[in-house]
Design a protein that fits this description.
45% of the residues lie in helices and 15% in strands. By secondary structure, it is of the alpha+beta class. The chain has a single domain, classed as 2-Layer Sandwich (Alpha-Beta Plaits), CATH 3.30.70. The protein has a 4-stranded antiparallel beta sheet with strand order 2-3-1-4, with helices on both faces. Helix 4 crosses helix 5. The structure holds adenosine-5'-diphosphate. The site of adenosine-5'-diphosphate (ADP) has 15 residues, from helix 4, helix 5 and helix 8.
Length: 181
């Protein structure tokens, strides 16, 4: 992985990761505050791209059908009354795609020491109601898994961040295809 020339610090575990500011981050005018959290933690914004709309092909690649089971399990753990895990996971996945496609989003390429784990820590847990204070979702989030399920929609939690190295590579290539990874 090529390191930008201006990163003069000696980094033992330099990584690059992908972050997506979801439509609620833009609607609520939280873009600056969210990006500031990453910069304050010593991470670098290496690329940024505004999408006025995400097309369904891109969103299906970003959130593939194979995610459905994990989504179903997470929902089942949060709300015990979910019986058909697979079917519920698919429902959450469709709601999630609709949510991210409803308005403009911003894609970020972020680099730095242990960037993948650091970004996930800054972002916080999926459910804003349970996310730790001091994290983006914990401080700015106003939704919850329970409320969104009751209202038949995806949980709005402002940001997506890659979960591991493989995901980061795949997502960076998907959202910044002009760069070679
Ligand atoms: P994370 O974004 O924290 O990595 P997941 O990959 O499990 O979480 O889920 C992707 C996104 O789907 C979440 O950020 C959230 O917007 C939405 N989501 C996940 N689980 C649920 C659920 N049970 N009900 C509603 N929305 C959900």
């Amino acid at each position: 992985m090529k390191r930008p020339w201006y990163l003069s610090r000696c980094l033992e575990m330099y990584e690059e990761t992908f972050v997506l500011l979801k439509p609620d981050a833009l609607e609520r005018r939280l873009v600056g505050k969210i990006i500031q959290r990453f910069e304050e933690s010593g991470l670098d914004i290496l690329d940024i791209r505004y999408f006025s709309r995400v097309d369904s092909n891109l969103i299906r690649k970003h959130y593939p059908d194979s995610m459905a089971r994990d989504l179903g399990v997470k929902a089942h753990n949060a709300m015990k009354n979910i019986l058909d895990i697979e079917a519920h996971g698919m429902l959450v996945l469709e709601r999630l795609r609709r949510y991210v496609m409803r308005g403009p989003v911003i894609a970020l390429k972020i680099g730095g020491e242990d960037a993948i784990r650091t970004v996930r820590r800054i972002v916080g847990y999926t459910d804003p109601l349970l996310a730790e204070k001091g994290t983006i979702r914990g401080d700015f989030g106003i939704d919850s898994l329970k409320k969104s399920t009751e209202e038949g929609r995806a949980c709005e939690n402002l940001v997506h961040a890659s979960g591991n190295e493989e995901e980061a590579k795949r997502e960076l290539a998907l959202w910044f295809p002009e760069n070679s990874y």
